[in-house]
From TrEMBL:
Keyword Oxidoreductase: no
Keyword Membrane: yes
UniProt xrefs under InterPro entries: 6-blade_b-propeller_TolB-like, WD40
Lineage: Bacteria, Bacillati, Actinomycetota, Actinomycetes, Micromonosporales
Name of the protein in question: Uncharacterized protein
Organism of provenance: Micromonospora arborensis
Biased composition (Low complexity): 72-81, 89-101
Family statement: Belongs to the TolB family.
Keywords for this protein: Membrane, Transmembrane, Transmembrane helix
Length: 395
């Protein structure tokens, strides 16, 4: 093969080869790379969207979980219930089943001890002594000065605690006086009033006084009962048509009943003096009582000093000691929550609760007992009242 033959063969081969446009190749390469980038970008966007969507699905409430593979044990998922706002705590006190409610239907007792009025427990040689008042939580207060015998034997405090009535002698007559508890506005309202047997007693509204008219030094002699209107200018009296053979009247807070001691025990009267019923449980050879202290608002219970017959029957003078509370219809004793201590005095309040005074060590304590017989509170008396007795409970 010579050189000429070689050149001819190479020329023929070149004519058979397709010419490639480098620019076209470059453009095709550029388009391919752009498509690849677009595909990559789109894929990345789809991945991002899928991720965001998955996150949204994950945080969306109440979204059901994806189905588990068939070989996975079945698990029941219970959604957590939506919590409602906590209610405002109740201020009422829960009452256990069968626990007494005090008759008011309220869970929290509202009864409280009113103002207590005190006088000397024993008559001393002093001509006068001061009436005192005390409300639990406060200090004792000194009130008007009265004859010691009146404080022990016949003083009466109005239900609202504002007025005081008592009988004092001027040598010729036993006179009934009224005054404010601080001693102001003292007035003589009646003469010839019994100071021992039927001591004057206030009506529930504090307007009237039940008393017995009798001549001086004749407490057990003939007399008559009257209801004096102390607020009227004329001091009018409504006289009873009967004269019960009884002493120491108590007036119920509802204004319907008056209780008094009789020969053997206690009798209940209407406000006009008519007999209603005798409290059972008293007899010549059994229990007797000459002294009553307090009557419940509806007349159904009475606090008194009860003794066995044959013992010291006492005298006509008033004695405010108490050793029992009785049901006036049945004569049955009403148990009190004394905690093993000695009962000394009991006073009913207008809501039916009782102020109960008990011996507590060398002094005394006062208990507040609800109408249902349950103790509500207990307070120690101030030492200054140790030698005194409770005369009344006011508002």
């Amino acid at each position: 093969m010579n050189d000429q033959r070689l050149r001819l063969d190479l020329t023929d081969l070149a004519e058979e080869v397709t010419v490639v446009d480098l620019r076209d190749r470059t453009l095709r390469t550029s388009r391919r790379l752009g498509v690849q980038r677009a595909v990559a970008t789109s894929a990345a966007a789809l991945v991002l969207i899928a991720a965001v969507t998955g996150t949204a699905f994950a945080i969306r409430p109440n979204q059901s979980p994806p189905p588990l593979p068939a070989d996975t044990p079945s698990v029941i998922v219970t959604p957590t219930p939506t919590q409602s706002p906590s209610p405002t705590p109740s201020t009422s006190t829960s009452v256990a089943p069968n626990s007494p409610s005090g008759g008011s239907g309220q869970n929290t007792p509202t009864a409280e001890i009113g103002k207590l009025f005190y006088g000397p427990a024993e008559v001393t040689g002093a001509e006068n002594a001061n009436l005192r008042s005390w409300r639990p939580g406060d200090n004792p207060v000194r009130l008007l000065a009265l004859p010691a015998l009146a404080l022990k034997g016949n003083v009466s405090v109005s239900p609202d605690g504002r007025r005081v009535a008592w009988v004092d002698s001027d040598g010729t007559s036993n006179n009934l006086f009224v005054a404010n508890a601080d001693g102001s506005d003292k007035q003589k309202v009646r003469s010839d009033v019994d100071p021992y047997c039927v001591t004057a007693v206030w009506s529930p509204d504090g307007r009237q006084l039940l008393f017995r008219e009798t001549k001086a030094n004749d407490a057990g002699g003939p007399g008559r009962y009257g209801v004096l209107d102390v607020r009227s200018t004329a001091r009018t009296v409504r006289w009873w048509t009967t004269e019960p053979d009884a002493c120491h009247a108590l007036w119920s807070a509802d204004g319907q009943t008056i209780a008094m001691n009789t020969d053997l025990g206690v009798t209940l009267y209407g406000t006009d003096g008519t007999t209603r019923r005798v409290v059972p449980g008293f007899s010549l050879d059994g229990w007797r009582s000459n002294d009553v202290a307090s009557l419940s608002p509806d007349g159904s219970r009475i606090a008194l000093l009860r003794k066995k017959s044959g013992g010291d029957a006492g005298d006509v003078a008033r004695d405010l000691r108490v050793n029992v509370v009785l049901n006036t219809k049945t004569g049955q004793e009403i148990r009190l929550p004394l905690g093993g201590r000695e009962l000394r005095q009991v006073y009913f309040q207008t809501d039916g609760s009782m102020v109960v005074r008990v011996q507590a060590g060398n002094g005394y304590a006062v208990l507040l007992v609800g109408e249902d017989g349950q103790k509500i509170s207990e307070t120690a008396e101030p030492a200054a009242l140790k030698d005194m007795q409770i005369l009344a409970v006011g508002a």
